[in-house]
Amino acid sequence: MGNFWEILLNSTRLRMGSLCFEELEALEEIISSGPWYVNGNIVGMDRWKIAFSPSSFKGELDIPLMGRWRITTIYGRKDVYKIRELWNGLEPHISTDGPMVIGGDFNCLLSKEDKKEGRRFLFSMGPKDKRSFMTTNDLHELGYVGPMFTWSNNKKRMDRIMERLDRMIVNSNAININQHLVVKHLPRIASDHCPILLNLFDQLQKKSSIKFEDIWVSYQTSYAVVEKAWKKKDTDSVNNILNYKLKRTFKSLFFWRKAKLKNLNQLKDTLKLEILQLQIKEAEVGPKKKLFVLGTGWASTSFLKYLDTSLYDVRVVSLCNFFAFTTLLPSITCGTVEPSSIVKPIRNIMRKAECYNIDPTNKNVLCRSTIGTNLDGNGEFELGYGYLVVALGAMQNAFNTPGVSEHCHFLKQTLIRSISVWKDVEVSQGIRRSVMNCFQKASLPDLSEEERIKNLHFVVIGSGPTTVEFTIEVHDFLQEDLSRLYPNALEFVRLSLIEAGKHILTLFDKKITQFVEEKFQSDCIDVKTNFKVVKVSGDAITKENSYTGEANVPYGLDVWSTGIGTCRIIFDFLKQIDQNIYALDDCATIAQIKFMEDILSIFRVADKDNSGTLTVKEIKDVLEDIERYPKVALYLKTKQMKDFLDLLEESEGDVMKESVEQDIERFKKALS
Question: Which residues form the EF-hand domain (predicted)?
């Protein structure tokens, strides 16, 4: 019969495979409407017996040298009860005395090997019903060649899912007739399903046939070729005349295509072969390289989102079994947002543990469990990796200030600790509870006014964007919420911000800095700039100013948020850095090479006489042009140029100092 189940119906070619319900209805209309064509010959209704049901197309066909075969194409519904109805409806049509083939989109998996990615396979009622149907009716699944999976959702990376949904099953009689039956999975082209093909006469030489191509319709000459061949006169029976016209038309189209589109078939075959090879490679389930990710912050979560998990065996190790939307962390301290609203659990891909060392020589990550202390060996274990992504973030930088770690709240760490145990009594250690405790202490009747002022003095150390946002949240919390609960204590409340620099938000534009400072002043937030915190005790903060000296500031609650520093594990690892290890987010750094080149080019512009040197006055002039970029000043400070700007200010009006020249090469060395 040639290619099994290849039927040309009113110039429409169908192949046994994924016929959906709508296609079955259309097929019923086509078959009942007129003549149909199999292997180049009109077949009378005595050769076929057709029956339809909502999800299946059943028929019987006489095949030369093989007798009468019972053939069924199905489309399985995902609903377990609908597909159970399908199996029950097929049972009366199962052939026990002749060969039978059932094929199509079963929409059902039989094992975990039938899918790649997506939800975990469960041997639930659907697979059990199908297995029972096959066993009861003596049906056997055929082997296949070609790509392993016949369906794909055609998405990319982590969202890509592939499954083997399309199958052919036969009874024992079909296997006895031909013991070498094999299903061929054809390339998946412009569809989410692979066509599947069963060739009953693989050992016979197949005649070359012509296949109608939609692209032919785009050529106007194809209409003339068909019209000329079809209009030729023939005399015979109606069926034979139709056969003659079809054969002649196909033959004319064959030679027209060969002349007009001689390279099209070769190109198509090449593309099909390439697609087939890609699908086979895509379906290969080989050993995946182990990829470990340390941390569950912004960088690691974004990295995991776009990672192709079909290529790597991914594991995550982190102290927190969730991702926190850190932008809203300051709102947690005042109860504006609940902790559950800003966290996303990732328990399914992570191990809750602390990574305390990295062994790049043996490619191991040394971890320690953080759950209890009664585990064997203190809960320590090793995990091997092929690639390692370190996204542990950073720790608060205390600048070795005495008393900070003992008496200060670290904004981010405190918030994360509160979230991780937000249902537990340990939440009392969070900032919000500490604020409430301060008000409750200040409300005690026997306290002096001095003690009330001390308990209700809230101090924030630092002036970055997160610190400023937190200060605003605390201010609103004090003025809008706690003022109603403790109206008598409101007159003693003070909120202060201490910053070592001249202004807050030093990395922002001056207009933004000025606006925030004015806003803080109008809200009675006491901003202390040019003060460096040198010590923190249990009841006072010692601040220092180059002009006024040291001063003690009594407080009820203090929050330290002065920036970030390197984690201990990262600091230790930098001594033995290795390949196949990558850093993301705050634990990574970027060499500012381009930044330095830009600064040097600006200074060259200032050298108007091309002398190769710049006077203090020339440098001052050019710095005025770039003063709006705060990072320039910050970069100069970090590159051994701490007192450079002060030198420029002091030189104003001093002829001797203004005439001092600086060699560009020496300046480049200072910046490097």
Answer: 594-629
Chain-centre distance for alpha carbon 150: 25
pLDDT one-digit tens code per residue, 254-309:
788 777 766 776 777 788 788 777 777 766 655 677 888 888 888 888 888 888 77
When comparing pLDDT for 593 and 102, which is higher?
102
Which of 141, 124, 129, 140 lies closest to 87, judged by CA? 129
Specify the pairing of strand 289-294 against strand 387-390: parallel
20: left (phi over 0), alpha (psi -120 to 50) or beta: beta
Average pLDDT over residues 627-641: 54
Burial of 37 (0-12, 13-18, 19+ CB in 10 A): middle
User: At CA 404, angle to CA 399 and CA 409, rounded to 5?
Assistant: 115
Q: Which two tokens stand for residue 161?
A: 């899912």
Contact assessment for residue 345 and residue 485, using Cβ atoms and an 8 Å cutoff: no
**Cα separation values, 13 from 54, 66, 125, Å:** 22, 23, 35
What average pLDDT does the chain have?
74
Across-strand partners of 51? 58
Structure tokens at 420: 């991780």
Q: Which distant-in-sequence residues (6+ apart) come within 8 Å of 486 by Cβ?
A: 439, 442, 443
- The pLDDT score that the predictor gives to residue 420 is 40
Task: Tell me the pLDDT tens digit for each residue of 181-238.
Answer: 888 888 887 778 888 888 776 544 445 556 667 777 778 888 888 888 888 888 888 8
Q: Which structure tokens are listed for 630?
A: 């705060």
Ranges 34-38, 447-451, 614-618, most confident: 447-451
For the chain, how many helices (H) and strands (E)? Answer: 23, 37
DSSP-assigned states of every residue in 389-446: EE----EE--TT-TTHHHHPEEHHHHHHHHHHTTTSGGGGGSHHHHHHHHHHHHT-TT
In angstroms, the CA 573 to CA 583 distance is: 11
Tokens linked to 151: 């369906």
Tokens 């509870």 found at = 433
Nearest residue to 622 (alpha-carbon basis) of 638, 600, 643, 640: 600
Element spanning 135, H or E: helix 125-136
Contact 99, 70 (CB under 8 A): yes
Q: Hey, which bits of 539-656 come out as E strands?
A: 540-545, 549-554, 557-560, 564-565, 581-583, 613-615
Grouping H, G, I as helix, E, B as strand and the rest as coil, residue 320 is coil
How far is it, in rounded angstroms, from Cα 602 to Cα 664?
11
Q: Calculate ∠ Cα 99-101-105, nearest 5°.
A: 170
DSSP conformational letter for 480: I
Tokens of 463: 């002036």
With contact defined as beta carbons under 8 Å apart, do 584 and 299 qualify?
yes
Q: Tokens for 51, please give them.
A: 């029956």
Helices (H), 607-663: 616-625, 630-638, 644-650, 655-658
CA 345 centroid distance within chain:
15
Answer yes or no: are the C-beta atoms of 129 and 155 closer than 8 Å.
no
